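pls ignore typos typing on phone
nicotinamide-adenine-dinucleotide + seq
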Amino acid sequence: MSASAQQLPPGAYRPPTDVWGGFARLARRMPREPVVVLDARVARLHPEVRPALARLAPRAVITVPGGEAAKSFRVLERILVGAASLPRAGALVAIGGGTIGDVATVAAHLLKRGVGLHHVPTTVLAAVDSSLGGKGAVDVTVSGRAVKNLAGVFHTAEACWLCPEFFTTLSDAQRREGAIEAWKMAVCLDASRFHAWCRRPPPLPRLVREARTLKESVVREDPYERTGLRKVLNFGHTFGHVLESVSRFRLAHGEAVGLGMVCALDVGRALGVTPEPLARSVEEVLQRKAGVRERAVMARLLARSHASEVGGLLATDKKAGTRGELQVVLLAEVGRARVVPVAPRIWQALLPLWRKGVRP
Ligand SMILES: NC(=O)c1ccc[n+]([C@@H]2O[C@H](COP(=O)([O-])OP(=O)(O)OC[C@H]3O[C@@H](n4cnc5c(N)ncnc54)[C@H](O)[C@@H]3O)[C@@H](O)[C@H]2O)c1
Ligand SMILES: [Zn+2]
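k done
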């Protein structure tokens, strides 16, 4: 770590320090006497983790089941209590997927007004997306409904330790989910990378590495999400969140985002932002190379839900504007996305076609 990075307060934005390798070897270089938040499933599937951690003389290893339930005040409190002895100069190490990383980020921000944070992302989604950019959050139940990421912080990690061995125990669907988010970044940020990936889809570690570079290119321009530049990373997420919800969260986030990108291409065409040949070719690439599901999957999900439900979900979307117009990320060309206000009549006209699985 550079001297200037060491002078920054814990959690302040700094360029990422990524370290790649096998976990047992990398663990020797991690901060000593940390508090570790460890995904319970990872602990079970990767028995090499505990002995490697033991050599760091951790103050505590707090094992937490992964999954959205980890992003709760209850788990946050468990971490704060377990980490009470950590000094301000100490480090919290999060080993797990995006949920463990998110709750640990909040804990690192709160503990002693901020301690050092280290990510060890064990899902592709966490490696590509959540372990970079400083965001962490827990969900809060409001009037009986869980509101995702309601209590959140920015707290940039001091380092991210990337160990591809963890990805070997993920399901194909989990790997695909992370890869779809990586492709999302190439589609909306970097035409030459997108075309290179189309010619030859990179092996997983390279996909992760290059996606992190892409994400960082936006994060460093807008580390605290003030200018709106980071919003382009929401490509596919407006309609993706609707599909996630109507599936009662049986459709995984990344899969939903994949289909959400298809919806955003349709909306872009309807508004004349996305040229037809571009929309067609990007959809084809997303399906053939990135593993995005076919439109029939979206049709089955939407067929079971009422249009009013879709409208309600879109209206509560945090990106909704005052007159019901949505702020949707649309693709103008490969590598260039922008946020465009979309009136309700636009998606209302497309919905019947999405429900039939027909390309408009
Ligand atoms: N902070 C951000 O910028 C950001 C960005 C994107 C997503 N997120 C958040 O990330 C979360 C989703 O992350 P996720 O998909 O990693 O979910 P997750 O953390 O729930 O992990 C998914 C499942 O995989 C298991 N798992 C983890 N590593 C494994 C491994 N190596 N082998 C086998 N199983 C493993 C977990 O126990 C869990 O059951 C969401 O809550 C989302 O809001 C945050
Ligand atoms: Zn996402």
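The first helix runs from residue 3 to 7. Residues 39, 41-42, 45, 66-68, 71, 96-100, 102, 122-123, 125-126, 129-130, 133, 135-136, 166, 169-170 surround nicotinamide-adenine-dinucleotide (ligand 1) (CB under 6 Å). more later
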